[in-house]
Amino acid sequence: MNVFSKLFGRSPFVLVIEHGRKVEECVSHLSSLFTLHFNGRDPEEIKRLANQISELETEADEIRNALHEALSGKFMIQASRGELVDIVEKQDSMADRAEEIAANLTFRKLELPDDLTVEVVRFIDIVIQNCAIVAGVVSKLQILMNSSFAELDTRTVLKLINELRGRDDLTRDACLEATRTLHSAGDTISPIELMLWGKIMGLLDELSGYARGTADGLRIVIENQRN
After folding, report:
1. Backbone angles phi, psi at 150, to 5 degrees
2. Residue range 76-94, pLDDT digits in tens
3. H-assigned helices in the chain
């Protein structure tokens, strides 16, 4: 697929949507990967899915690069190239973190006692949901474009962004609780497993942070269209 020829010359909002869809696909595969991991599936199956995530991340990079080229042209919207590039870079970082998390899950089988799994899975679910909210915001850019950023449609999208911002405390508390639980495990998990889980928790936290950053960038651009 010639990504550049497909995307060049189209509305920059359409370009952001195309990229967002690929990032969403990458992150949704991460959710499936964790399900496989916690269900004790074959490590080879986990590696296969991790490789799929890596391929999707590469495809997202290709679209991002094409976007940089396309945004060098002229477009008639009230948004700076810098604002749109920042959104795309944060979206792309979401795919990057998903790829890193997937890779860490292939290094070795990371065991967790049942009483520790609950808090870790809760944090994972919250982060994945945060990413899903952002994907919903990006997908609705098409509706905003079609309605010329009508007030009602704009309020609907901004409500989703506010929903994500309202989850900050939930996300932070879940991260702290999962991390605290892991560090209180004592000898039930090995030091290497503790280190790897700690790294995965940090990458998940960064993934959620980039989702929030993407939403904040979209808020600025959407608000500019109302002025």
Report:
1. -60, 150
2. 455 577 888 899 999 999 9
3. 3-7, 12-38, 43-70, 81-107, 114-139, 141-146, 151-165, 168-183, 191-226
Alpha-carbon distance 154 to 17, whole Å? 16
pLDDT in tens, 188-219: 888 888 899 999 999 999 999 999 999 999 99
Burial of 72 (0-12, 13-18, 19+ CB in 10 A): exposed
Write down the pLDDT at residue 207.
98
Q: How far apart are CA 98 and CA 125, in angstroms?
A: 14
Phi, psi of 166 (to 5 degrees): -70, -10
pLDDT, position 76? 47
189: helix, coil or strand? coil
Residue range 2-30: mean pLDDT, rounded: 73
State the amino acid at position 55 in one-letter form: E
Inter-CA distances, 220 with 79, 90, 193, 210, Å: 9, 14, 41, 15
Domains (ranges, CATH) in the chain? 3-226 (1.20.58.220)
